[in-house]
Amino acid sequence: MTSLAAEAVHALTHRSLTLGTCESLTAGLLAATVATVPGASAVLRGGLVTYSTELKTTLAGVDAELLAVRGAVDPDVARQMALGARTVCGATIGVACTGVAGPDPQDGRPVGCVHIAVATGSDHVVARELSLSGDREDIRRATVGACLSLVLEVL
Residue 37 carries which DSSP code? Predict the structure, then answer.
């Protein structure tokens, strides 16, 4: 995971881009992982931890009706979280994750169901659905790795 973070920081630095995060199930682990890389301060603008559903609306600007209808574990929620991270953090790229780390299902979604998204513009967001296995920490770490991989893919 640290090598992916280093690769992402290098790629962002090389392109003079910045990064903002919006995290639910990882609760700041993504931003913290990026911050372990020397030179991260050149690219990491900041992050939102929207662990509770209501904070996805109040901090990240996710549509409250979308959350009420579909729940927090949804691809469109991840997309809106990524856009919110980009906007609120004043970053050129926003990355977000929402999902179920366990031990119990949430909103009718099984443990390991995760949605991630990267926003590079107000009309350009790439999202992925993941089906992860393992315990709570395995799922959280795998989510961070998948987010960093998606940032690199988008770049």
Answer: S
Decide if 87 contacts 121 (C-beta within 8 A): no
Do residues 40 and 65 touch, judged by C-beta distance below 8 A? no
d(CA 136, CA 94): 24
Task: Decide if 147 contacts 97 (C-beta within 8 A).
Answer: yes
Distance CA 142, CA 123 (A): 27
The β-bridge relationship of strands 124-131 and 113-121 is antiparallel
Convert the pLDDT of each residue in 104-134 to its tens digit: 999 899 999 999 999 999 889 999 999 999 9
Query: How many angstroms separate the CA atoms of 69 and 108, rounded?
Result: 12
